[in-house]
Amino acid sequence: MGLSTHVLDTMHGCPAAGMRVKLWSVHGDEARLVKELVLNADGRNPDGPLYDNQSLRRGTYRLSFSVKDYFLARGVVLPEPAFLDVVHLDFGVAHEDQHYHVPLLVSPWSYSTYRGS
């Protein structure tokens, strides 16, 4: 299954439909943009996995979630500057043959992640 993500809006109790996400490949201090996407109604990539098993390589990756813009678009009044703007999650892929699912649970004031299944 490769690499996937899923974002849940814990403030509203729903998937984070419309949130912008960027996937980066990280090598030392350099990050190369791999793809940009907007999450669908289920809070997932509309095109399926970010990488399939054949394309996923061992290494370090970054997912960047545009949290502030998402909540502003939902009509949430945020302070300026917002507590959370873009949430960056750096994670490692050690086994190319395994599925790496990187979910994000997020509100304007907190977030949590884990390696899902």
What are the segments in which pLDDT stays under 50 over at least 5 consecutive residues? none
Which strand order spans the largest sheet, edge to edge or round the barrel? 2-1-7-8
Q: What is the domain total for the residues?
A: 1
How much of the sequence lies in strands comes to: 35-45%
Give the name of the CATH superfamily. Transthyretin/hydroxyisourate hydrolase domain
Report the C-alpha radius of gyration, rounded. Answer: 14 Å
Largest sheet: 4 strands, mixed
CATH fold category name: Immunoglobulin-like
Number of strands: 8
Helix vs. strand class: mainly beta
Helix fraction by DSSP (H/I, runs of at least 4): under 10%
| Mean pLDDT over the full residue set | 97
Query: What letter string, H or E per element, gives the SSE order?
Result: EEEEEHEEE
The rough form would be described as globular
- Reading off the top of the CATH hierarchy, the class is best stated as Mainly Beta
Question: Termini, distance in Å?
Answer: 10 Å
CATH architecture heading: Sandwich
What does this structure look like?
This protein has 117 residues and is mainly β. The chain has a single domain, classed as Transthyretin/hydroxyisourate hydrolase domain (Immunoglobulin-like, Sandwich), CATH 2.60.40.180. It contains 1 helix and 8 strands, in the order E-E-E-E-E-H-E-E-E. The strands form 2 sheets. Strands 2-1-7-8 form a 4-stranded mixed sheet, with no helix packed on it. Strands 4-3-5-6 form a 4-stranded antiparallel sheet. A hairpin with a 4-residue loop joins strand 1 and strand 2. The chain is globular, with a radius of gyration of 14 Å. The termini are close together. The model has no long low-confidence stretch (mean pLDDT 97).
